[in-house]
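Action item from last meeting closed. Structure (129 res):
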């Protein structure tokens, strides 16, 4: 655990598809569901080492089904694509808030380098019979 601030209000905005986090300093951050999904802290996404991270493509339309508090230290987000194994500790969420521009650009760069897309429809496997 770190000294990262804990949000005082958490709102799931279904129409705008964001998780809104408000902190005591009156800072309010809006994190898209896609951003939260591609930066899931789970081992399935991040791996156990940086070299094992799996690029999450095609998540632009991902939804959030449920939020679950985990003790006094984290939030579990259940996504409609079945992903639910990441625990978003307060310090990790705060990092996602305060470093959003840099992290999002890094994700877009990784997608471009891999020739992948945010769009779920474009994730097509090509087979030659």
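Sequence:
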């Amino acid at each position: 655990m770190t000294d990262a601030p804990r949000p005082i209000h958490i709102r799931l905005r279904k129409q705008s598809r964001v998780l809104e986090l408000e902190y005591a300093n009156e800072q309010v951050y809006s994190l898209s569901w896609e951003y939260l999904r591609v930066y899931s802290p789970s081992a399935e996404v991040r791996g156990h080492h940086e070299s094992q991270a799996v690029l999450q493509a095609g998540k632009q339309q991902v939804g959030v089904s449920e939020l679950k508090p985990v003790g006094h230290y984290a939030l579990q987000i259940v996504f409609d694509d079945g992903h639910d194994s990441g625990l978003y500790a307060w310090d990790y969420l705060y990092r996602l808030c305060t470093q959003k521009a840099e992290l999002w650009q890094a994700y877009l760069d990784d997608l471009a380098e891999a020739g992948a897309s945010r769009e779920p429809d474009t994730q097509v496997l090509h087979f030659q019979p």
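Note appended to the action item: The two ends are 53 Å apart (CA to CA).
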